[in-house]
């Protein structure tokens, strides 16, 4: 287990919650001298390659058709071939090569299901000589985490030009001062503040946060789980949740990166998790299967070899507080055994 001092952990958590806060405000919150906070944050930025970005509300942006796909190839494929196929479309937000029960995972945003069908048929046709098997499901909601959105996807939104520019700036660096934003927009600071408030009132921005590009845990796992939906399901699901949100006090980042629900496919939940080594990963999967028990209908897992597009959403939040489903009420009607 990797550990850091309590002040550094608290800095990472505070910046994960709101990276636009000032050093003075952060120091006051943590009961530290501003100089101490600045020094420790600078060290963390260098060590973990911290990127400041936005967590956006995809539904509010208009991307209500969100999909997660996995592919297995019949033979080795050069990643350049995949990248060449991907570059024609803005929809894919996260793409990674994996090793295990599947070889590639893709998360994409589309406004309509027809857009998704057009894209996936194109992708399958272009790689038809490689794809042995594929499946995908509609993402119905996040229990925890997010996929950082790309700048170019904003061009497919109905936002005003200035709002798109502002979001692009903040996706690149969410700590960009308002004065710099105003200069790039060629407006006054008060006008830039007006547009910022407008974005916040539209609830487009969930939070200004961080993404750790050089995480302390190098092994990243993707697991998919399909359930039978018996009366035992709720009890089993709560046991899994308690397992996922339990973390050691001085962990520098959340091991759990993502947990989301899918529909119209063979699997119901997708889990992204980090480990110090492969042995931890196999033990994790063994524990997940044990907790799911006889409720489990199907499962697959793989380890991420290389991210081809996008970023893994590694950061530090109060995971017990943040683990929820904002826009999913899919289990409300189920009986609990």
Strand content: 25-35%
Distance between the termini: 36 Å
Number of strands: 10
CATH superfamily of the domain at 218-322: Lrp/AsnC effector binding domain/regulation of amino acid metabolism (RAM) domain
Uncertain regions spanning at least 5 consecutive residues: none
Determine the CATH topology of the domain at 218-322: Alpha-Beta Plaits
Q: Using the coordinates above, name the CATH class of the domain at 218-322.
A: Alpha Beta
Write the layout of secondary structure elements.
Blueprint: H1 6-17, H2 23-30, H3 34-48, E1 50-56, H4 58-61, E2 65-73, H5 79-86, E3 92-100, E4 104-110, H6 113-126, E5 131-144, H7 161-172, H8 178-185, H9 189-201, E6 205-212, E7 219-227, H10 233-245, E8 256-263, E9 269-275, H11 278-292, E10 296-309, H12 319-322
Antiparallel strand pairs: 1-6, 2-4, 2-5, 3-4, 3-10, 5-8, 7-9, 7-10, 8-9
Helix pairs in contact: 1-3, 2-3, 8-9
Q: Your description of this structure?
A:
The relative contact order is 0.19. This protein has twelve helices and ten strands. The mean pLDDT is 93. Strand 8 and strand 9 (269-275) form a beta hairpin. Helix 2 (23-30) packs across helix 3 and helix 8 (178-185) crosses helix 9. It has an eight-stranded antiparallel β-barrel with strand order 2-4-3-10-7-9-8-5, surrounded by four helices. The chain has a two-stranded antiparallel ribbon with strand order 1-6. With 337 residues, the protein is of the alpha+beta class. The chain has helices spanning 6-17, 23-30, 34-48, 58-61, 79-86, 113-126, 161-172, 178-185, 189-201, 233-245, 278-292, 319-322; strands spanning 50-56, 65-73, 92-100, 104-110, 131-144, 205-212, 219-227, 256-263, 269-275, 296-309. Among the domains are: 6-51, Orthogonal Bundle (Arc Repressor Mutant, subunit A), CATH 1.10.10.10; 218-322, 2-Layer Sandwich (Alpha-Beta Plaits).
